[in-house]
Amino acid sequence: MTAAFEGIGASVRRKEDLRFISGRGHYTDDINRPGQLHAYIRRSDRPHAKIVSIDTTAAAAAPGVAAVFTGADLAGIGGLPCGWQIHNKDGSPMAEPKHPVLAEGKVRHVGDPIAVVIAETKQQAKDAAELLDIVLEDLPSIASVTAAAAPGAPRVHDDVAGNVCYDWHIGDKAAVDAAFARAAKVVSLDLTNNRLIPNAMEPRAAVGDFDPTTDDYTLYTTSQNPHVIRLLMGAFVLGLPEHKLRVVAPDVGGGFGSKIYHYAEEAIVTWAAGRLKRPVKWTAERTESFMSDAHGRDHVSTAEMALDAEGHFLALRVKTLCNMGGYLSTFAPAVPTYLYATLLAGVYKTPAIYAEVKAMFTNTVPVDAYRGAGRPEAAFLIERLVDTICHDTGHDRVDIRRKNFIPVDAFPYQTPVALQYDSGDYFTTLDAALKAADWAGFPARRAAAKANGKLRGIGISTYLEACGIAPSKVVGSLGARAGLYEVANVRVHPTGSVSVFTGTHSHGQGHETTFAQLVSDQLGVPLSQVDVVHGDTAKIPFGMGTYGSRSLAVGGSAMVKAMDKIIAKGKKIAAHLMEASADDIEFKDGKFSVAGTDKVKTLGEIALTAYVPHNYPIETLEPGLDETAFYDPMNFTFPGGCHVCEVEIDQDTGVTSVVNFVAVDDVGRVINPMIVEGQVQGGVAQGIGQALLESAVYDEAGQLLSGSFMDYTMPRADDLPNITVGTESTLCTHNPLGAKGCGEVGAIGSPPAVMNAVVDALKDLGVRHVDMPASPQKIWAIIHSNRPRMAAE
Amino acid sequence: MYDFAYQKPASLADAVKALGAEDAKALAGGQTLIPVLKQRLNKPSVVVDLSRLGLSGISLTGETVTIGAMTTHATVANSADVKRAIPALAHLASLIGDEQVRHRGTIGGSLANNDPSADYPAAVLALGATIKTDRRTIAADDYFQGMFATALEPNEVITSVTFPIPAKAAYMKFNNPASRYAMVGVFVAKGPQGVRVAITGAGQGGVFRHAAYEAALAANWSADALNGITTPTDGLNSDIHASAEYRAHLIGVMAKRATAAAG
């Protein structure tokens, strides 16, 4: 009997799920060190204020308190660094005001940390924090990008004129202007991309530890990229060398981008552990998460398309104001530029594109990458604009897309906004999605709904994204202050089992299964004999972490490169044992054989020989079977596809229900179809959340009105339809796996599909555009304001 | 959470006595009190747990359903007696919170708290129920006195609620999309006390009766009878999820649907 197939392409059940679903995961908050103290952070409840005075006397004298620190105590250490530098149109660098670990002089958003109380228990720390006497003097404040950009707006940072972090552009303005001048038709659309709060299930947490006998620091933290945190915090904030700083990110319960960044609390607990010579722990309460985790999106844009008489896209012009919040989060400047404006070609062969992006400081929580990061904003803008073109001109929504798609034979395709797509076939994903969604049968369903008093609409989104975030050379030229390769160490143990050490990090993605399948497949080792290790700078050589759907495309490729080295070395050992030339050794299904003979050595035999080198080519080959590879790809990867959404609107209440959703994505090579489907389902759930439910709402002054789950509408299971997921893949041409990535496609492709369906449902009312989220109140107001008109018709 | 003393008395008299202490708080199902304590929004001297007083249970007569104050929402929702006698009440209980909340939260706790977005006040007011306490009975019309305010004295403990069985009744709830509390909940009833319509979730002062709807339905029990009757926006809540105008509109929609559902 042959064992069940568990290699590339098998829907193997996730190895990690037993511990997760049985409550035995080991998260940062589960870590408790001997002698540990607890930190509680007193945060600003004002959007913008001068810190007049902080009296810590009473708090410091409270029971159990070990220390109270304010910005003045931390003034000697660095601010939180920004990992990406954008340059203005005139070539000058962006404004990069200091982001202090604890507020210095002013607070700039609700949630800005002012002081930390460290005590024997968390309760004591909280009790003492109430005794802090903090005098704040309110300053004028702003929350929206439009308010920040208004003449005479209050300044968030005294030395940043007009609140402009950067004023950047990309593309050929002259070519775009020329195309608009000769266009048969121009269609323009104003749209916003609503601000979101990530809300990972596990709140952020950090434990700092210090060993006075060795001067070694350890930070346990909820991170998607422990090596990046070690680099940023060690080099830029605390001045600790890498060999004295270990960062561990154990099981992490969801990130969606929000756990990429280096946060103040990580620096506070590490620094305080060194000062107090005792471990210090901090765990966010949910309310703190709402006001201290980096938010996502928050764009206000104008998009204009120039068309010829047949509906060919001639040129695209985009103006975007984006919100950076009160300070620059780690990768914030990259999101609305290189992860957004470079994607504005989408799947279309639009010959000329020009985009201007102005990033604004406001008195709100810093904004950074959130699932999709820039690409959902681009896809939403393009796909809403395409549907608006159809609304204004009468073109068919499917035909106009086919007419403007980049042809299948045009790859590699150079866009007018820097990126070069390596592969894709947008026609196939479109056709498959239309078929699965029964697009042709929609008019009958619409009529049936109408008979029941419901408004039914169908929407389409043919989107593209860039992921596998990498090429160091490319991102470096675009402003990154880091490389973006990935690292794998493959260790074949003496008896043939394998440990794989990866610089990527799993916080829900199933890496322990997918990567084990990859190794099992390539080395011919049973899945049970492969363990994947991640999340500890003391164990893993190096790594840039997990975000931008890069883990398989970049991290998996690094594993393939390391395994290639293992196999090459194994061949030499096998050649020695079987008295053949290494060139004649073949490796397949875990066995080394001499071509054309029945001589065979298993990987286990070769491994044992490598570690017990009694009979071994020791003059030319080192013992051991342990190889490391750093992999830096040649390009991004470009997943894409087609999402189709069907909605029904209750005219009486304004409630929009998603009645059908189909996603057909090109994610390149699929290792585990079940995990890919899960990733797409989760992404679509978040996309439907953005489209219909979620919104971070600030009042004009910068008070967060949606600061808890009482007011922030997280999608729940009963908000979501059954989601049909399909894949129609073309392979990435430049990585050894052909993988493109699947982590973000759902969140990128779905919002415009949903909103195109909503606008379609309302088309008889003359509705041209609806901004997200399509809440019941908003839709009712639209229907209500059009009622007299409907009655008149 | 601040430190507090905790008592779990075995008799109603002891509970009332314990609640006489300054800043004492009664704990029923804890679905509001515990989160409030965790957020340090309340600092009681003593928390008096009512779970040992034997106040849970459902009893039926030909004319009434009586529900013990400590009876959970899940028990009410799943009770064959309630489903038969006042199905609208069982349905209402099934809509409260989520499964976990329904297995902890109690009718007495909900009514004592009188959250303006709670569901039970709508049923109590529309059905003309009677609230029994350790010392008296209070008619529904006298009980609700504004947002989080009731006729209860500081140490008074609800023991049970008696609902007259109506000829017709239904509850329709429009959820706040985020919290799933009632953004607008409408309970319509035609019973021994006449036609009564109670609205929860919408009013700044908590649950209220809708006189215009009651008059219309008393004259003609049908959804169409409510056509053209608008609800003034004065006194209605307005927040990021629903303006007063939208709430006023939803009151009409939910009232019509409730009337239709009541048959």
Structure description:
The complex is a heterodimer of chains A (793) and B (263). Chain A is α+β, with helices and mostly antiparallel strands. Chain A has three domains: 31-139 and 201-254 and 259-292, Aldehyde Oxidoreductase, domain 3, CATH 3.90.1170; 299-469 and 635-792, Aldehyde Oxidoreductase, domain 4; 485-631, Aldehyde oxidase/xanthine dehydrogenase, molybdopterin binding domain (Aldehyde Oxidoreductase, domain 4, 2-Layer Sandwich). In chain A, 28% of the residues lie in helices and 23% in strands. Chain A contains 19 helices and 28 strands. In chain A, the strands form seven sheets. A seven-stranded mixed β-sheet of chain A has the order 3-5-1-12-9-10-11, sandwiched between helices. A five-stranded mixed β-sheet of chain A has the order 7-15-14-13-8, with helices on both faces. Chain A is globular. The model of chain A has no long low-confidence stretch (mean pLDDT 96). Chain B has 263 residues and is an alpha+beta fold. Among the domains of chain B are: 1-48, Uridine Diphospho-n-acetylenolpyruvylglucosamine Reductase, domain 2 (2-Layer Sandwich), CATH 3.30.43.10; 168-262, CO dehydrogenase flavoprotein, C-terminal domain (Enolase-like, domain 1). Chain B has eleven helices and twelve strands. Chain B has helices spanning 12-18, 33-38, 73-78, 80-85, 87-94, 99-104, 107-113, 120-127, 140-143, 211-219, 244-262; strands at residues 5-7, 24-27, 46-49, 58-60, 64-68, 130-133, 137-139, 158-164, 168-175, 182-191, 194-200, 208-209. A five-stranded antiparallel β-sheet of chain B has the order 4-5-8-6-7. Chain B has a four-stranded antiparallel β-sheet with strand order 9-10-11-12, sandwiched between helices. In chain B, helix 2 (33-38) links the parallel strand 2 (24-27) and strand 3 (46-49). The longest helix of chain B has 19 residues, at 244-262. The relative contact order of chain B is 0.12. The mean pLDDT of chain B is 97. The interface between A and B is medium-sized, with 23 and 19 residues. Chain B: Keywords: FAD, Flavoprotein, Oxidoreductase. Chain B: Residues 1-168 form the FAD-binding PCMH-type domain. Chain B: One of its GO terms (molecular function) is FAD binding.
